[in-house]
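Chain X:
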Amino acid sequence: MKKEFDLTSHVLVPKHILMNKKEVEELLEKYKITLNELPRISLKDPVVAKLNASLDDVVKIIRSSSTSGESEFYRRVVK
């Protein structure tokens, strides 16, 4: 039997977190933007698929940064 690889444990894959509705509302209000103004990420992205995300969900991506320690990015899930 073939062992399945967990891609979220790979050093080059940043942490992805599925945001709830309240967090999304606060994010949009904070930056005074609409959901359609967020950058996009595909529903077929392997990490997004693992999160069981749906269309128009928002994913918070936390990346390591040499200057700030960590940086947060936000993506809207699209088809």
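Chain Y:
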Amino acid sequence: MLAVMEAIIYVADEPVKPEQLQEVFPGETKESLERALRTTAEAFNERPGGMAIREVAGGFRMTTRPEYHEQIREYLKTRPNAKLSMASLETLAVVAYKQPVTLAEILAIRGKKSSSALHTLLEKNLVAIVGRKQVVGRPILYGTSREFLIHFGLNSLKDLPTLEEFAQLASEQL
């Protein structure tokens, strides 16, 4: 069963969740499949190699090991992901840490116009419309998407660094 799970994780386009495996293993419960997925990931990650199985966005996904990212980028002739402008990154940070948040609230925090950055984040599916605020005018509320979790390798928003950790990381980089 573990070898089959490993193969499924390898070919899957999206993180594999236990409930998706119930069709493949009909006699198993969601809980036993979740334990088996964790066991598969632990066993796979104990082996040396360039790949790892990580828990991302509520499922399991095969990824390259972080320590090899620079060599992989060199091989692929790419640069670190710089496809988002600084305005988009700032807007994304506000949404990630303050969600659900309105455009006006983003503007108040950033102090700059954010509509074009927000539009870019919506196009890239990193941010999603999550509802409307129950106030006069009913402005749209924004939050991060599942694609955000996948893109940044997070299992949930709880995995985001705290603002204190973020400040410490930033000061170490400078």
